[in-house]
Amino acid sequence: MNKNILKLTMVFFAIFAFNACSDDDEITFTAQTPPDQISFTNEFLSEYLLSSQTASNNAERFTWEAPDFGVPTPITYQLEGSTDFEFTEPVNLVETSNQQASVSVGQLLNLAESAGLDNDPETDNPDSGDLFFRVRALIGTENAENSPETISEITTLTVSILAAGGEEPLPVLPNLYLVGNATAANWDNNNNNFPMVRNPENENVFTYTGKFLGGDTNEFKLLENRGSWQPQWGLQDGNLDSSEDLGNDPGSFVISEGEGYYTLEVDTENKTSTLVSFEEAGSETYTTIGIIGFGTTGNDDGWSQDIDMTQSSFDPHIWYISEIELFDGEVKFRAENDWGTNWGSGTEFSGSASIDGPNIPTRAATYEVWFNDLTGNYNLIPIQD
């Protein structure tokens, strides 16, 4: 009898211990709300000009630091806009897992209209005012109601709505410039650094084809602005990344296969890059290339005179004009002051021109102009005051 009671007691304790161990195996990590607020890292303009004609253009690219929740976890970011500082009715503009997000002119216009702004002379509404923005960071990807989160300080942007039919402002478009001892500029960040060509259909994608110096010590990076080392783009663990997202400078691209011609393509949104050889041998080298058209003078006289471009001493296929006033109109590029070889395309500001292609549309402004006769790629970069 005593033996049976002892056996039952042992079984009871074994079951209790098993359940206790099972419960202990379900380890739960508790994320804590970061003590410091998340913060924006990009610089903002003093005023944003909005018009319905440019609604599809990007108005601003917001960037921010990643918060530390104390445990490794995916983070969902929500960029919010509001018509009032209290965020009474916040608008979720972008939801992303990245530390950056672009907001279009159209999104700002919608917010501005909700704030009662317009440029209609028949109303008493103001045509300019302030809009408010913040970014929320939440644990995970499901946005659970009780997830820890942190919210940035509020940033105020001043916007002005242009009257319908008024002068359309030039869009603010991103650029990337080459720097490094594999390039013409060497490690000087303000030495007429060659720009990459922005894809006119996707402003996050850039391409450059040209000469690079090679060797294990010949390297380069990409800068968003000439004369400034920040923000800069390079390689981190073999992947494209930026100093803004990393919090420090990325590594360099290395031309390890030797001096020659290469095509570089980068996607700053998806953080991808490719660098492949380009066969330049047999390509024609021109003695002159110029820009011609109504857009160079503002009248038809522009179609009868070439404005010669400067040929790069580093790469004879790269041509540029440091400063030129262009007018509303159209232009083309042509070689040897003759229509026998001319390039054109239907996209303004940047694109890939083809032989005998359409005229390139221009808007009145002062520009820096670049052309690549190997690919037909071109940049018309407005010079901002």
Q: Beta fraction of the residues? A: 35-45%
Residue share in helices? 10-25%
Distance between the termini: 100 Å
Average pLDDT for all residues = 87
What gyration radius follows from the Cα positions, in whole Å? Answer: 28 Å
Report low-confidence residues grouped into runs of 5 or more: 1-31
Please give the domain count.
Answer: 3
Number of strands: 28
CATH architecture of the largest domain: Sandwich
- Largest sheet properties: 6 strands, mixed
Kindly provide the name of the CATH class of the largest domain: Mainly Beta
Going by helix content, strand content and strand pairing, the class is mainly beta
Tell me the quaternary state.
Answer: single chain
CATH topology of the largest domain: Immunoglobulin-like
How does the overall form come out from the CA principal axes? flat
Q: Give the number of helices.
A: 4
Domain SusE outer membrane protein: 23-119
Keywords: Signal
Pfam families: SusE (PF14292)
InterPro entries: Ig-like_fold, SusE
Any overview of this molecule?
By secondary structure, this protein is mainly beta. The chain has helices at residues 2-25, 105-114, 243-246, 294-297; strands at 48-50, 58-63, 75-82, 91-96, 100-104, 128-139, 149-151, 155-161, 177-179, 197-199, 202-212, 219-223, 232-236, 239-242, 253-254, 260-267, 272-277, 289-292, 307-308, 310-311, 318-326, 329-335, 342-344, 350-352, 354-355, 360-362, 365-372, 377-382. The strands form six sheets. Strands 1, 3, 4, 6, 7 and 8 form a six-stranded mixed sheet that branches. A hairpin with a 4-residue loop joins strand 16 and strand 17. 31% of the residues are buried.
